[in-house]
Write a structure and sequence with these properties.
The protein has one domain (22-77). It contains four helices and no strands. It has helices spanning 5-18, 25-41, 47-58, 60-77. The chain binds zinc ion.
């Protein structure tokens, strides 16, 4: 049975609303270095970096990347 127009528009709304601000992994990794530096320096995060933080919470793969970056940055500072 084909979906009605109503059902389709409900589905589209659901998809759009589930990930209003979500970053893709590519976007996240593009900003993760800046995020790591901000965390180390303790500067407040701008909106795009807050999104990175959200993404890292939900994405073990990017979080791994972030942790090794953080370690690298720390060893430079030390
Ligand atoms: Zn990711």
């Amino acid at each position: 049975m084909p979906l009605s127009k109503q059902q389709i528009s409900t589905l589209i709304t659901l998809v759009v609303n589930t990930t209003p601000d979500a970053l893709s992994c590519d976007d996240c990794l593009g900003d993760v270095a800046q995020f790591a530096e901000s965390e180390l320096v303790g500067t407040s995060l701008c909106e795009s970096l807050l999104k990175v933080r959200e993404h890292l919470k939900n994405c073990p793969c990017c979080n791994d990347e972030y942790q090794s970056l953080l370690e690298a940055l720390r060893s430079i500072d030390a």
